[in-house]
């Protein structure tokens, strides 16, 4: 598990290898990840958007941006957490992801960024 705290918001990430399949005559490697966002601050916050940088072992890079996470813009009160599962496809058996969430502090109405630590994606059959 990979973890990082930014401005009182703790991000924890666990990854899984989901399998391989062919798409458009090309092998793809499917990975899942589970993210827990824990509010360790004294203020309620809301996640408004996300920014991902996904890189595979062939040095292909993809930027993914969007509103919320999996169709939600969760409000997280002090001491509470929000967990969600998602995934990505790579064209190689190894890769990594990192990024950030844009959030709003409900007390100060200030926007801030919470960093998502870099985490590895690797298929178990490709490891020595």
Automatic annotation (TrEMBL):
Note the Gene3D superfamilies from the entry: ApaG domain
From what superkingdom does this record's organism come? Bacteria
Q: What Pfam families is this protein classified in?
A: DUF525
Per the database record, which ranges form the ApaG domain? 3-128
Q: Which NCBIfam families match?
A: PRK05461.1
Protein name listed in UniProt = Co2+/Mg2+ efflux protein ApaG
What's the source species for this entry?
Gangjinia marincola
The taxonomy runs: Bacteria, Pseudomonadati, Bacteroidota, Flavobacteriia, Flavobacteriales
């Amino acid at each position: 598990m990979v973890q990082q705290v930014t401005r009182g918001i703790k991000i924890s990430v666990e990854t899984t290898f989901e399998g391989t399949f062919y798409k458009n005559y090309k092998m793809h490697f499917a990975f899942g990840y589970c993210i827990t966002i824990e509010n360790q601050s004294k203020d309620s916050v809301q996640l408004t958007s996300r920014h991902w940088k996904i890189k595979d072992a062939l040095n292909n890079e993809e930027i993914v941006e969007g509103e919320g996470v999996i169709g939600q813009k969760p409000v997280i009160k002090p001491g509470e957490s929000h967990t969600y599962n998602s995934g990505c496809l790579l064209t190689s058996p190894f890769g990594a992801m990192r990024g950030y969430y844009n959030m709003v502090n409900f007390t100060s109405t200030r926007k801030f960024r919470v960093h998502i630590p870099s985490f590895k994606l690797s298929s178990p059959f490709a490891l020595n």
